[in-house]
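Inputs:
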Amino acid sequence: MAEAIIFYTLAALILAFAVMVVTVRNTLYSALLLAADFLLVALLYASMNNLLLAVIQVMVYAAGIVLVYVFVVILVNLKRPPEQQPDRGRYRPIGTILAAAVLGELILITATGALRPAPAGGAEAVGSVENIAMELFTNYLIPFEVASMLLLVAMVGAIVLAKKEL
Amino acid sequence: MITQTHYLLLSAALFMIGVFGVLSRRNVIVIFLSIELILNAVNINLIGFAEYWGNSSGQVFAIFVIAVAVAEAVIGLGIIVAFYRNKETINIDEMNLMKW
């Protein structure tokens, strides 16, 4: 029962903040609401006993990525924000229809489709640090190393893009 | 009782809110924020399935998704800053340099 209350509260808050992120006019508010949304998703992970993922979510998303977004919002100090230009929201009807249609389809599939029953004996502390580390450093070692290369390339690319003359 | 279906529905709703943001906004920064929402929905889905199957691979993939999201955000925002410096706008409708 407590589990259900926690889940529904978190889910309602996550969806409400997400709606605000995409509808609020001010870009800075949008970024800060996104940080709040990430923190709520971290709480959801924690409620699913995934403490490692919750900590990564807070440290990388809510602290790192949102900070970069806020810096860019401040750097790109708009004299004429895109939303205040004429014929704004031209794509809003088609976006609403498309998103609602696909959401309805997904809900239909999820609600009517039968999942295969979970294997017996599973689900003991899959989110624990030991299990994740064991998977990460044995089966997924090469993707892990490739990810480090990806981050290096992204860092070099960001520095090149931010140079004065491009 | 919270089942796998609940996590799938939450993830689908969050995903579609992100898709709506990408389609309806024209401020590129907000579009990037919506993409982060989409990636978060994917992570919720992955972790829900990992719990369901009792297999840690889902969490490992969620960590990879987060790493790729960081790279994507940094490169995308670098492009936005470079574009703004040249064109003084971040309206997606005015980004038509490569439009045929």
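DSSP finds six helices and no strands in chain A. Flag for discussion at group meeting.
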